[in-house]
What we know:
Helix content: 40-55%
CATH superfamily of the largest domain: Dehydroquinate synthase-like - alpha domain
Strand content: 15-25%
Structural class: alpha/beta
CATH class of the largest domain: Mainly Alpha
Order of helices and strands: EEHEHEHEHEHEEEHHHHHHHEEH
Bound molecules: glycine
Number of domains: 2
Largest sheet: 7 strands, mixed
Number of strands: 11
Shape: globular
CATH topology of the largest domain: Dehydroquinate synthase-like, alpha domain
Distance between the termini: 42 Å
Amino acid sequence: MADPAVIRVATDAAYDVMVGSGLLGTLPDLLGPEVQRVAIILPDDLWGPASAVGDVLSSYDVVGLPVPPGEDAKTAEIASGCWEALGDAGFTRTDAVVAVGGGATTDLAGFVAATWLRGVRVVHVPTTLLGMVDAAIGGKTGINTRAGKNLVGSFHEPAGVLCDLDLLATLPAAELRSGLGEVVKCGFVADPEILTLVEEHGVPDPRSPVLRDLVERAVRVKADVVAGDLRERGGEAGRPGREVLNYGHTMGHAVERASGYGLRHGEAVAVGCVYVAELARAAGILADDVADRHRTAFTRVGLPTGWSGATYGDLRERMAVDKKSRGSSLRFVVLEDLARPRILTDPAEEHLRAAYDVMAGGA
Ligand code: GLY
């Protein structure tokens, strides 16, 4: 077993993300010496990892908190059930939450940990690629309401994140590909070596060194971005800061919602990245070869590069609503070149439309 990579997220409350195989045994190190009681929040269908984590934590006073799989866990009702269970267990400030599951589970568990006694330790053990490279890192926590996803939440950084690649061995292939959508995004905005790797290897075997390299690289990209701008206030000299992680997400969120979540998140992000590359090309910001490379890279990992399931007007409206939280302007993270992101505000309508025509034609 190769040594794990330890990637520091250097925020004020700095923490480590460990990436490697056979890592579950190191969970107590991330919990720290004071913790006596541990609440494990995990989807109620995740039997394998649940019993492995239970074995590792057998010397603690463990409270098991099974929650529904996926986004169904991210409700006020489920969060309230977790708070009541923590209260019944007499959970104190020196106890800790361990989240085992995909991004929805770590979002919920992070929120429960952020709010119980105004904040207790949480360690994330993501079991999906998307969770490892995105949701479990960076301290965003939240639940959904009728009006939309993640509208209630807080920043609460974990005490540590344990990315045990063995947990990906049983991940459905479509979920692995979806996670690669965010990995490839990191390649475009910050680490082009990721693009070279996926172009050479396509979808890597979950146990291969290539996947480990990709996870490490994507985690480093996110760790660097978050360390510079945890609360998404913007980067230096007008650069995007944490918002850069939203590359491809303005259109990505619109197609994800318009598809009724029939498209997985990483699939929608791939379509959104192709769209925004076409937008930057139409606006004269991005050279043809880099714009074209979006199609090549996402295709290599089996992700869609076009979608025609909704009209331009529908998606235009959805993008505008999405961005109203930032004021009335339509904002995109675009590339000037590989690893050179910037913000484009209120692009010309003809460029928005031209990029849609390419995206819809490439479905
Ligand atoms: N997933 C985007 C972010 O963490 O900011």
